[in-house]
Amino acid sequence: MKPERKSEILEVRHAGLNAYGDDHQVVSVKSPGSAIHRKKPCPNCPWRVDAVGEFPAEAFRHSAETAYDMSNKIFACHEAGIQRTAICAGFLLRGADHNLAIRLKYLQGHQLDATCDGVELHDSYRAMAIANGVPADDPVLAPCR
């Protein structure tokens, strides 16, 4: 019998209301060493160009460090939730090239294959954050690629 692999909540930060009036938060979790990931972006994935406004600008400020060079933080899928955390497909496709945690998963032999499935994605974390209301000159975006 496999031991239960539960995620541990590290921090919960309020992110405010999105363009539709929905309240959001950003939850930081520590997950077991798995590499569970989404294979394609979800319908409301923030990396999708057609999903601008689904999440408030503050959520992108809170998550920006996932796009910093050599970050050990991973951008997780919002649909997966905190009990069954999964790496976001959009992040794998556009934001993870310089992420240390993702590079280590590849070195450990994990196959993190994802496809955009025909949907247009933002070219970078910076582009995604700006499209969702974070000012281009916000200091939190300076280290982002």
Summarize this structure briefly.
By secondary structure, the chain is α+β, with helices and mostly antiparallel strands. The protein has four helices and two strands.
Strands, helices and their partners?
Blueprint: E1 8-17, E2 23-30, H1 57-63, H2 89-94, H3 100-107, H4 125-131
Antiparallel strand pairs: 1-2
InterPro entries: DUF6283
Descriptive overview:
The chain has 145 residues and is α+β, with helices and mostly antiparallel strands. Strands 1-2 form a two-stranded antiparallel ribbon. 19% of the residues lie in helices and 12% in strands. It has one domain. The chain contains four helices and two strands. The longest helix is centred in the C-terminal third of the chain and has 8 residues, at 100-107. InterPro entries: DUF6283.
Helix content: 10-25%
Total number of helices: 4
The radius of gyration computed from the alpha-carbon positions, rounded to a whole number of angstroms, is: 15 Å
Secondary-structure class: alpha+beta
Terminus-to-terminus distance: 42 Å
Count structural domains.
1
User: Can you tell me the residue ranges where pLDDT is under 50 for at least 5 consecutive residues?
Assistant: none
What does the largest sheet look like? Answer: 2 strands, antiparallel
What's the shape?
globular
Number of strands: 2
Kindly report the average pLDDT value. 87
InterPro entries: DUF6283
